[in-house]
Amino acid sequence: MSWAQTIVLSIVQGLTEFLPVSSSGHLRIISSLFWGADAGASFTAVVQLGTELAVLVYFAKDIWRILTGWCAGVVDKNKRGFDYRMGWMVIVGSIPVGVLGLLLKDLIRDNFRNLWITATVLILFSFVFIWAERVGSKKRGYDELRMKDALIMGFAQCLALIPGVSRSGGTISAGLFVGLDREVAARFSFLLAIPAVLASGLFSLPDAFAPDSGQAASGLQLLVGTSIAFVLGYVTIAWLLRFVSNNSFAWFAAYRIPFGLFVMVLLGFDVLQA
C-alpha cells in the first residue's frame, strides 16, 4: 500500500465512520477507483481503531460513569441504577455482531465486498432512513433506553458487516423505529459500536500486515492512518450530534442514492471492477 493511498483512505475513514453513509463502502470504492485494488477488510478494521479512540475521548465522561456504575452494581445490588443497566445494554447489544462477525469472517473479507452489493445497499438502505424518519416518534429520551432497544439496535448493527449499509445508519435507524430521539439514537449508536469495533480492529491487526486478501500496510502506515482517522473522527462526532438535533437523517439518503447510482454506472462501463 502506498503512502498516498494510506493517507487518503484514512481521511475518508475519519470523515465517514460516524455518518450514515458507510465508511467501509467508501473505502472499498475509493481504493478501487483510484488505486485499482481493494485495500482489504483488515486495513479497514485496523484504521477504525482511530475513529473508535475518538469515541472513547469524546464520550470519556459518559463511558467512565457507565463503567463505574456497572462495576458498582456488579459488586452491590443496591447500586444498580441506570448506568449499571446501560453497561449491560452495551454488552448485550454488542453480542450479535460479535457472533456473526466470527461466523461470517470469510464472507466479510471476500464475497460481501463485491461493489455491486455495496452500490445496491447504498441505494436501498437509504429508503430505510426515510421510512425511519417518517414513522419514528423521536420522543424517547436517553434515560428511557431499555434492554429491548439495545437488542434491536444490536441486531441492526450486524447489517454493517456488509459494506454500504453503514454501522451508524443501521443502528440509528433502528433507534428511530423504536421511538428514540435522533441525538439519543446517535449517542447510543456510538457507545454500542465501541466493543465491536475495538475487537474487530485488534483481531484484524495481524492480518493487516500480511493479509490473505487486500493490501499489506506497514506498522508506520497503520499508525499514521489511525491518527488521521482519530482527529477527523472526533470532529465528525461533534458535528453530527449538532446536526441531528435539528435535521433529518433522510438528508443523507439524498447523498447515498446518487452515489450508489454513480458507482453502478462506473461498474457498468468497467471503470470499476466489482
Topology:
Blueprint: H1 3-16, H2 23-35, H3 41-58, H4 60-75, H5 82-103, H6 105-109, H7 115-135, H8 147-157, H9 167-177, H10 182-209, H11 219-244, H12 250-268
Helix pairs in contact: 1-2, 1-11, 3-10, 3-11, 4-5, 5-8, 5-10, 7-9, 7-12, 8-9, 9-10, 10-11
Overview of the molecule:
The structure is a single chain. Helices cover 74% and strands 0% of the residues. The longest helix has 28 residues, at 182-209. The protein has 274 residues and is an all-alpha fold. The protein contains twelve helices and no strands. The protein is globular.
Report strand %: under 5%
Low-confidence stretches: none
| Approximate shape | globular
Q: How is the main sheet built?
A: none
Structural class: mainly alpha
Please name the defining characteristics of this protein.
single chain, 274 residues, mainly alpha, 0% strand, globular
Concise structural overview:
The chain is mainly alpha-helical and 274 residues long.
